[in-house]
Amino acid sequence: MSSEPTSPIRTSSSFFKEELARALAEQTFGIGGYTLGHSSVHEASASVQLLERVRLDINLSIRGFQVTGVSAHAGASAAIAADSSMVFETVDALLQHCSPLYSVRRTETLFAKLMS
């Protein structure tokens, strides 16, 4: 009686990068842009330009979405609430927490869709 060896669950080497890119592409209505950074089988990173003229560095891993750095440009319009110990299930939740202008645009976009 032989049994086959159990193999660990394998993750595509591009899974996190593709998921992060997809998630950010869905949020373009409320951000100034984004650039994908490094990726591995364990995580992916990106730099996101907020409407407040603040750049967030974010990371996606098996834990979720997390802010890893914040830098404000000259003339940034607001203080950003970004705690690197917090982990979010979605990039939408992360952006709502960190960016008041993202939240405003999100509400406006949802309202416009409901009215059309």
From TrEMBL:
Record-annotated GSKIP domain positions: 18-115
Pfam families referenced in this protein's UniProt entry, alphabetically: GSKIP_dom
UniProt xrefs under InterPro entries: GSKIP_dom, GSKIP_dom_sf
Xref: Gene3D superfamilies: Hypothetical protein (hspc210)
Name listed for the protein in its UniProt record: GSKIP domain-containing protein
Organism of this sequence: Phellinidium pouzarii
Lineage: Eukaryota, Fungi, Dikarya, Basidiomycota, Agaricomycotina
